Amino acid sequence: MPDIAQERATRQRGSVELQSLFELSRAISSSRDFRHVLDVLLLTPMGRMLISRGAILLPNGHGRFAIAAAKGVPHEWQQQVFAFQKLPRHIVAAPAEDLRHYAARLPELGFNLLCPIYFDDRCLGVLALGNKLDGSFYSKNELEYLQALANIAAPVLENNRHLHALEVVNKQLDRKIQELQTLFEIGNELNSTLDKKTIADSLCFAIMGEMMVQHCVVLLMQAPGEYEVLACKGQLNPKEVPLLQQADLMHQLLQLQRPLRLQDIPESGLRSVLKASHLNLYIPLMNQDEVKGAVLLGKRFIQSDYSDNDLQFLSTLANAATISLENARLFQEALEKQRMDEELAIARDIQQRLLPASPPELPGFDLAGLNWPSKQVGGDYYDFFLIDSNRLLLAIGDVSGKGVPASLLMANLQASLRALIYADMPLTKIVARINDIIHENTAIDKFITFFVAIIDIRNRALTFVNAGHNPPILIHQSGEVVFLETGGLLLGMMPNVVYEEETVPLASGDWLILYTDGVSEAMNAEDEEFTEKRILQAVHKHADLSAAELVEVIAREVIDFTNNAPQADDITLVALHLD
Q: What mean pLDDT value characterizes the chain?
């Protein structure tokens, strides 16, 4: 009989436990209150087993666990965060297992049982329980009950966690939708113009209407330490706003990269002047982590302060205005660039017209030149023309720098040469006079490398002066190579320079190659230069070509050598072949 009674009692206790678990499952499944679910999950085993202390620990998203619900735990303990050396995969309880192997601090706080709650091999939390009031250890049935409790709670806990997250997201979405609708309407108005003052006015009126603001100022940075007042609304005159008259405080203010209420700014001269200017809020206009301007707002008519949501909304609106202002700036820059491109195109056309249109036709002489500027206009120069029926002038030069300044100096060089070459002066004196002209009319950092030669057509003799230019290469039909180096200092460095000249004979089959450093010093990806050696190789390889074909071939070989990288310097060549 005792065995039958004990078995009946066991079955009755099991039935009660199943009924309890069923009611627990129904209670927590029907609730969408996350806090209520946690309380039921914690209080049920504590009440059933007369446990004095319990807590539910949930992941906080940083690899640690925080107390989400607690009973019998001092308030100061509830703020603590716990790190698990390893997460338990099953219920662990003292004295059978040492809880310190899992989380060292939990036993110190009076917990002696850990029941993990898993869902799809992911730990949703840990139920931590303290001692039972009667001082007994947890029985096998109680451990089984707790495990069943964890199994039932896991999907409910997961669903409630998702529901809670969805409710939060839905509330945020509702608020954001309303804000986005407002931002969309204001954004359309801001984007309807490319005039920065109109954009600033629209921004002011939109903010004053939405926020019920008394005063609004929009500033735009022009350069470090400089700004422009685009709009000043609400009975404010920029000249009467103390803040706008103090450059040091304005500079200090425009270093701030986040929205600030007046009370958020530490007591300082800046705060005092903002208050005196009736300005209570600062919103930076940010673009790529740089402050491009600011919106300054006064008090609200409704006598309430700006909330965090207001700051977020105003920051978003300020970002939209910044984009519109940036678009307006880019549009103006595009117009300016278009204007400059048109002017540069005209300058390029003028510069190309300054270069020889075609070589003079001379029996026994094949002459050609080529100029490929690295920019629309460049600083390289070449020239050839007949001084008289028996004298041919050849010239090549390279002006320091690039672009329009170099092209203007190049034009000055050409004008000086053409004006002086007809004077009854030796070539050395002509070059010396050009040097003085360049020195007198340019800065110290501007100079020109220059080579000029006069060919006696009848006697086939070349007289030259090299003013610091890459030595032209004279290649005799016999194979002898002569570099034409005699001359002196490059042009423009100092006045009253004395130059030397030299005369060399020319003969049938000779090639003369003039070039700038954009040819010989062109570099490939391995930092190798094209060099005079490759120029010589090209001449020997293509000696049967015409002068025009040869300069084109050499220029193409330079481009191929650099693997079509953007030109770092102008490419200029002149070739002369004697039949």
A: 86
Nearest of 352, 391, 388 to residue 370 by alpha carbon: 352
189 vs 100, residue with greater confidence: 100
- Three-state SS string over 110-133 comes to CCCEEEEEEECCEEEEEEEECCEC
Q: What is the DSSP letter of 536?
A: H
pLDDT tens by residue, 86-125: 889 999 998 888 898 898 888 888 899 999 999 988 899 9
Nearest of 570, 525, 574 to residue 554 by alpha carbon? 574
Query: Where residue 192 falls among pLDDT bands split at 50, 70, 90?
Result: confident
- The candidate with the shortest Cα–Cα distance to 456, out of 503, 392, 511, 388, is 392
Domains and CATH numbers, the chain: 2-165 (3.30.450.40), 191-331 (3.30.450.40), 356-578 (3.60.40.10)
Percentage of the chain lying above the pLDDT 90 cut: 39
- pLDDT at residue 431, as a whole number: 96
Look at strands 290-297 and 281-287 and give their pairing.
Answer: antiparallel
Cα(523)–Cα(529) distance, rounded to whole angstroms?
5
Determine the Cα–Cα distance for residues 57 and 271; give it in Å rounded to an integer. 45
Judge contact between 58 and 124, C-beta under 8 A. yes
Is residue 117 within 8 A of residue 127, CB to CB? The reply is yes
Identify the DSSP state of 300. Answer: B
Rounded Cα distance, 154 and 122, in Å: 10
Whole-angstrom distance, CA of residue 358 vs CA of residue 255: 60
Residue 9 has pLDDT above 50, yes or no: no
CB 516 within 8 A of CB 380: yes
Q: How far apart are CA 241 and CA 298, in angstroms?
A: 12
Reduce the DSSP state of residue 153 to 3 states and report it: helix
Q: Do 423 and 434 meet the contact criterion of CB atoms below 8 Å apart? A: no
Give the helix/strand (H/E) hosting 343. Answer: helix 308-354
d(CA 211, CA 287): 24
Of residues 80, 168, 67, the one with CA closest to residue 125: 67
